[in-house]
Design brief:
It is a single chain. This protein is mostly helical. It has a single domain, classed as Ribonuclease iii, N-terminal Endonuclease Domain, Chain A (Orthogonal Bundle), CATH 1.10.1520.20. Helix content is 67%, strand content 0%. The chain has 5 helices and no strands.
Length: 114
């Protein structure tokens, strides 16, 4: 499956989910954008880049965005589940956004191939 095909819509969905998660944590509306660096590092940390060796951060981010959109479009994950995972992981002892997105990507990968 070429998840990158879904990245144009995935970009908007990921930014929406990210904004909702940060807004919930800060208890005030916030608009956030998930950077290519954040998503590419999360994909790498999640162990999902094995077939993506010689690509740049932009391509990795497109893959992550497409993966998240594909899972949502096919009702494998809800927006609320995604937000909950990000909030929980951003507030745990590791507390990084990369860690949070890594966990979300692992969760989605398990839903798709599980």
């Amino acid at each position: 499956m070429r998840f990158e095909e879904f990245s144009p819509l995935g970009d908007s969905l990921v930014n929406f989910i990210y904004s909702l998660a940060v807004s919930r944590i800060r208890k005030t509306p916030v608009s956030k954008r998930a950077s290519n660096r954040l998503l590419s590092e999360a994909l790498t940390n999640a162990g999902l880049r094995e077939n993506k060796r010689r690509v740049n951060k932009h391509s990795l981010a497109d893959y992550a965005e497409g993966l998240i959109f594909y899972a949502w479009k096919n009702k494998l994950v809800t927006i609320e589940e995604c937000v909950d995972i990000l909030v929980e992981r951003m507030q745990d002892e590791n507390g990084s956004e990369v860690h949070a997105f890594s966990e979300l990507l692992r969760y989605i990968e398990a839903k798709i191939h599980g």
